[in-house]
What we know:
Blueprint: H1 3-9, H2 12-17, H3 36-43, H4 57-70, E1 74-78, H5 81-92, E2 98-102, H6 107-119, E3 123-127, H7 135-138, E4 143-149, H8 161-171, E5 174-178, H9 183-186, E6 196-199, E7 214-218, H10 220-233, H11 239-249, H12 252-272, E8 278-280, H13 290-296, E9 303-307, H14 311-321, E10 326-327, E11 337-339, H15 351-357, E12 363-367, H16 373-384
Parallel strand pairs: 2-3, 2-4, 4-5, 5-6, 10-11
Antiparallel strand pairs: 1-7, 6-7, 8-9, 9-12, 11-12
Helix pairs in contact: 4-11, 5-10, 14-16
Amino acid sequence: MHPETDVLHRGEGAAKAARPLNTPIYATSTFTFENVAALEAYHRGDGGYLYSRHANPTIEAAEAKLAVLEGAEAAMLTSSGMAATATALAGLLAAGDELVCSSALYGGTLQLVTTFLRRFGVDVRILPPDRFAAAGQLVGPKTRVVWFETPANPTLRCVDIREVAEACRAGGALSVLDNTFATPVNQQPLALGIDLVMHSATKYLNGHGDVTAGVLAASRALLARLQPARRFFGGVLDPAAAYQVARGLKTLALRVARHNQNAGELARWLEADTRVSRVFYPGLPSHPDHETARRQMRGFGGMICFEVPGGLDAAGRLFDRLGLIQRAASLGGTESLCSLPVLTSHHGVSEAGLAEAGVTAGMIRLSVGLEHPDDLVADLDQALG
């Protein structure tokens, strides 16, 4: 055998004999078959792999971990949180169907449903959080999917999950909850009756700010309806990124406990400071949905939103003066991040849409990291001026 041929095939035996502690990264786009019978067996559903856009062992290992965390039969990884959202909506809706969603949503989700979905003939009805759980208003005759967040981005408004799930079941609609802010450590939507859970796995699930990913978790039957959308739109996650998500999950419970603790301390300090107009944190008794959050959450999360008087100018001055806390979009990592919702998560949303979502120009969103809370308080104190 010529060396240039031998080098392409050398070493397969050693790889097959290894027994790694961690699932290795299967960095391959395609998989081989022994013969026609093996290929036919694959198409009968008897196991094996064909192409990494369809399935990959590294991705499936991470999906199994995510399913356990959410108490789901199965999970599906995608290339981003928005890819997960688009995959779910494309797999569940058709022209003439109605989607009902909360006005308190991530801005990217709002823009997706109010622009692209409407262009493809899907009716979109948006309700404020206060009216969201009302069974008589939530599900109509054409409603096929109800999509919401709790806690919501960025105001941390909370909706009674069980009430929404029961209203959807009674009306024949599927319920979908974006559980990114809460994480499965703090909140278990499927156990409360929700049909499908979505995450931007970029955030707390990976937890280190170095991967973009999304995930859907549900019954096997429901995810089977969504598989074609992921496969044909091409929104599958890269195996190396799936490995990093799985690695991040190993410390998720430890990290979330510290996020909860730090955010609670910081929220109480901000609420007592006269330079701050309002603080939005579900763990505070002053939060309008505190009792709802207390019933359905084990911890209140690492996200805080607060408002300063003076609008965007005042919020911008605070933003520019931060030292320890980093100025960046995204959330859920080990480092504390600050963003201005009107310029990040909700940039491009109309004035009417911002008003419906409860987002103002003077709002500041904090993703509280794992630093010592005294250091975070000191940075905010000097930034407030």
